[in-house]
């Protein structure tokens, strides 16, 4: 078993203690996560601070070239990263799994390299010229989750360094190894200290939130943890980007074709085994086509192979950890007890690993946990409706507001319904299809700020207005 190291100031740093990282498919130990101390965090912040002046002085073109070089490094080592990702996270190598995630990391990195934030001229008159300049914030702290440990790391790190900041990243203690390897590869093309990694349990994340040397924090995770991050950042008035939990609603209109939309509905809900912030988590279907949608969804789900991610035959893998496995199981049981009809799945697989079958639960409504709360796993509630105004109100009756979708043949009607959904992103006849050129973020309790595109890049800058 390999014992991994931290990476601080451009070099590996050993720690006195490690924690075992387990394969969720088998329970086997994948590797040893280094347990950083607060002193290690201080060293990482110091390294990032020392590197900042030199990095911010680089031209935009030089920083763009560095991001392109990172993309090439990831691509060159893509199969190694994908295998390590599968071992610790569980998602299959093939399909929409680990290779797909690594490919996404490359695509986002390359796109971000090409974005410019030029000086904006606000006024140029005989009375004077006013310019808006964007400057890097300083040292950025990054805390990433366990569902997409490589791609989300790139979502945090690449915009930060593209705009002249330096970074200290702390990945989830569930899936730190692929992020450590990613940072090692980044350090092959970046000056020492531009990107540093510390790993450990939640106490290190809390220390990042309060650290006086960190000017901005970007966090992806649950709403509950996001609130703690926000509270702990108060004393230093850190700038924050928070991408938090979602309970995305999809509304199927009566003119939709149940057979035609079944595949899109399925992958909208079950990409990454449902362990995605902006995947479909509540499905509202009009009474006139309710039974047909249930039938076609169940038929599609029947062909999905769930198994060890290292098998090329697996389409979905396990739930990543025991806590999430127990949440999914308990929510399904709560729905069953409240009259939910199990169309497929509903009973955990026996044996090793956190395997839970694709589960569709019909005839449920608000008032059960599977509808009211984010399940973050392979279980989807299907809710019958008759009145459009009522279902829009129900879709909005939730503290989360990350994504939503509307499904139907009449695109103008679907867009009109979509405009009434209280969420940061909305899709028509698809769900969760994010892009590197389109801003992504939540409203209500699903977050603060946005990621991706020029708007996402701006999150890592401060404004200086120059009056000439």
Jot down its keywords.
468 residues; alpha/beta; Aldehyde Dehydrogenase, Chain A, domain 1; Aldehyde Dehydrogenase, Chain A, domain 2; 2 domains; 20 strands; globular; Ald_DH/histidinol_DH; Aldehyde dehydrogenase family protein
Structural notes for this entry:
This protein is an alpha/beta fold. The chain has two domains: 6-244 and 443-467, Aldehyde Dehydrogenase, Chain A, domain 1; 248-428, Aldehyde Dehydrogenase, Chain A, domain 2 (3-Layer(aba) Sandwich). 37% of the residues lie in helices and 21% in strands. It is built from 15 helices and 20 strands. It has helices spanning 38-56, 60-76, 78-89, 98-113, 151-162, 177-186, 202-210, 223-232, 258-270, 290-301, 322-337, 369-372, 388-396, 411-418, 453-458; strands at 6-8, 11-13, 18-22, 29-34, 120-125, 128-136, 139-143, 166-170, 195-197, 216-220, 239-243, 248-252, 280-286, 341-344, 359-362, 379-385, 403-407, 425-428, 447-448, 461-467. The protein has a seven-stranded mixed β-sheet with strand order 14-15-16-13-12-17-18, sandwiched between helices. A six-stranded mixed β-sheet has the order 9-8-7-10-11-19, sandwiched between helices. A three-stranded antiparallel β-sheet has the order 5-6-20, with no helix packed on it. Strand 12, helix 9 (258-270) and strand 13 (280-286) form a beta-alpha-beta unit. Helix 2 (60-76) runs antiparallel to helix 4 (98-113), helix 3 packs antiparallel against helix 6 and helix 4 packs parallel to helix 5. The chain is globular, with a radius of gyration of 23 Å. The termini are far apart. The mean pLDDT is 97.
């Amino acid at each position: 078993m390999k014992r991994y190291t931290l990476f601080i100031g451009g070099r590996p740093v050993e720690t006195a203690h490690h924690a075992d990282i387990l394969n969720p498919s088998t329970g086997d130990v994948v590797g040893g996560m280094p347990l950083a101390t607060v002193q290690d965090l201080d060293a990482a912040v110091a390294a990032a601070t020392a590197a900042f002046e030199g990095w911010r002085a680089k031209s935009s073109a030089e920083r763009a070239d560095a991001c392109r070089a990172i993309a090439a490094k990831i691509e060159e080592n893509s199969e190694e990263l994908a295998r390590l990702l599968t071992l610790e996270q569980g998602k299959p190598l093939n399909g929409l799994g680990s290779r797909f995630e690594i490919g996404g990391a490359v695509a986002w990195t390359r796109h971000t390299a090409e974005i410019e934030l030029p000086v904006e001229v606000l006024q140029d008159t005989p009375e004077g010229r006013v310019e808006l300049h964007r400057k890097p914030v300083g040292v950025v702290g990054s805390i990433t989750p366990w569902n997409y440990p490589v791609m989300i790391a790139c979502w945090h790190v690449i915009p930060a360094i593209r705009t002249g900041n330096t970074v200290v990243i702390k990945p989830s203690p569930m899936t730190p190894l692929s992020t450590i390897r990613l940072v090692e590869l980044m350090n092959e093309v970046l000056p020492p200290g531009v990107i540093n990694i510390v790993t450990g349990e939640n106490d290190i994340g809390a220390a990042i939130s309060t650290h006086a040397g960190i000017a901005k924090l970007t966090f992806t995770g649950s709403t509950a943890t996001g609130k703690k991050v926000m509270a702990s950042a108060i004393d230093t008035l850190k700038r924050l980007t928070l991408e938090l939990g979602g309970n995305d609603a999809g509304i199927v209109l009566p003119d939709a074709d149940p057979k035609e939309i079944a595949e899109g509905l399925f992958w909208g809900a079950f990409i990454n085994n449902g362990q995605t912030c902006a995947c479909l988590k509540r499905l509202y279907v009009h009474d006139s086509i309710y039974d047909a949608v249930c039938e076609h969804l169940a038929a599609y789900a029947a062909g999905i192979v769930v198994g060890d991610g290292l098998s090329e035959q697996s389409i979905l893998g396990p739930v990543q950890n025991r806590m999430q496995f127990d949440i999914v199981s308990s929510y399904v049981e709560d729905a069953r007890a409240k009259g939910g009809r199990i169309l497929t799945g509903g009973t955990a697989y026996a044996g090793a690993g956190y395997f839970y079958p694709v589960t569709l639960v019909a005839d449920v409504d608000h008032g059960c946990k599977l509808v009211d709360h984010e399940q973050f796993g392979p279980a989807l509630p299907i809710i019958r409706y008759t009145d459009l105004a009522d279902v829009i109100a129900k879709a909005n009756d939730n503290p989360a507001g990350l994504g939503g979708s509307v499904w139907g043949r009449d695109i103008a009607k679907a867009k009109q319904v979509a405009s009434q959904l209280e969420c940061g992103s909305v899709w028509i006849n698809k769900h969760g299809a994010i892009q590197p050129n389109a801003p992504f973020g939540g409203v209500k309790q699903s977050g603060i700020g946005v990621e991706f595109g020029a708007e996402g890049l701006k999150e890592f800058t401060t404004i200086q207005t120059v009056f000439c």
